[in-house]
Design brief:
heterodimer, A: alpha/beta, five-stranded parallel sheet, 9% strand, B: five-stranded parallel sheet, 52% helix, globular
Chain lengths: 279, 227
Amino acid sequence: MPDQEKERLQERERVATPTDHSEIVPGRLPAISEDESKHFYGEPLVGFDPHEITGTLIVIEGMDGSGRSTQISLLQEWLESEGFAVQTSGLRRSTLVGRDIDELLAKNAVTRLTLALMYCTDFFDQLEHRIVPALKSGTIVLADRYIFTLIARSVVRGINRDYLSGLYAMALRPHLTFWLNVRPETAFGREFRKAQAISYWEAGRDMSLSHDLYWSFIRYQTMIKREFEAFAKRHDFLELDGEAPVSTVNKLLRQRIAEQLGIRSTKYTPSSALAHLWR
Amino acid sequence: MPNRAYPGALIVVEGTDGSGKSTQLYLLKRWLEIGGYRLHFTEWNSSPLVKSATRRGKQRRLLTPPTFSLLHAADFADRCERQIMPLLQGDYLVLADRYIYTAFARDGARGCPEKWLRNLYRFAPVPDITFYFRAPLDVAVHRILSGRPKLKYYEAGMDLGLSYDRPESFRLFQARIMDGYDKMVESDNFVVLDGTLPVNKLQKQMREIAASKIDLKRFAPRAAEAE
């Protein structure tokens, strides 16, 4: 027991970021010992009955260039071929504020706290209008990023961890959370090839980390990665090597998901429409 | 993000719709403005940032208790980071028509957990004075209903499903909000004022309390200081 405590403190030292001096243990979300804790991180969502959930919420997390979207496209095809209804969600896709956030980012005329709250609004709008109704109807929801990315991005910008955890206390706990872990250097190459450029926000240029685009990207993504390492331990992330071939990562994902859904078949070859992803 | 030390001062008015708070804050502002005081006036829900989202949310009835609350918090955070905090740091007297207690009372009435709401607004500076204008429910409801042809959906709290009748729903919603305010009187040091008093009497009280709690001279023009 004392050893465990020591380990915990050491871990806390290691992942502490210079921007946050709070006493909060990284990666921890408020826990409530009641029944809700199975479904939520803190208080339950207003007017929500957890017993109505018959679907499965699967989250894929990972930095830009970790291969999330590729894997989600492939998983959706596989699950549909197995006869499951699938819905996807992702950041900035809400009807309520998705477009507004795009505009704010384009104009770069927003403070970090306001942006964090707009993202939080976007998250809960999708949670209540898309994710929860889908889960109630037995659908599998594949979430391209979740609260972890949102919290990590704000924490590295100096917003208090405890504050952010409190904001997302009403978020639904996923059934499975996968983390596609890649080195920032690899992610840089992949992102650059995609658009022949690196965007302002991907490189964390608002944080004045470096005048150099490459180093700004590496430093920013390393900070985010450190937050993910802390989350991974506390929230049972299933960590996968995002630098492995697409087909290898996909096979591991299918195996774990099949186990969760109680199905035996994990055979899959992408259709011609998605064959180009199967590098 | 915690409250930093700043030289300015913050005066807030709170109360249900029809409690007379806006009129009173306007008169306090006029009194100070005429005296040449350094001040800034701010209102709840006034920035263009979330206007389109709020309009879309209301028209299409997309807003749920958490998103309704978060959208207002985003709007307030913008005002707080761009206006309220910089002005307090720059030694201004800031007058706010409604503040975070509006969110606590209204969103609490909609069912948002208090703990969640309190955390959401943790970044807000604590007011130097919070005037709470209290008027009996019937008086407040009458003032609103007589001056407005039709109550809007969210304004009447129709999303709570309390009643199909809008005026009745409004009444029940306002009663819940008033309960929320009453609960904060002690915990948040509200100065309670009787909203049924004549306007000029109420204003006299407000000015006296403001002058006794805040060193208003600090915000007066330089010439007055030299006297």
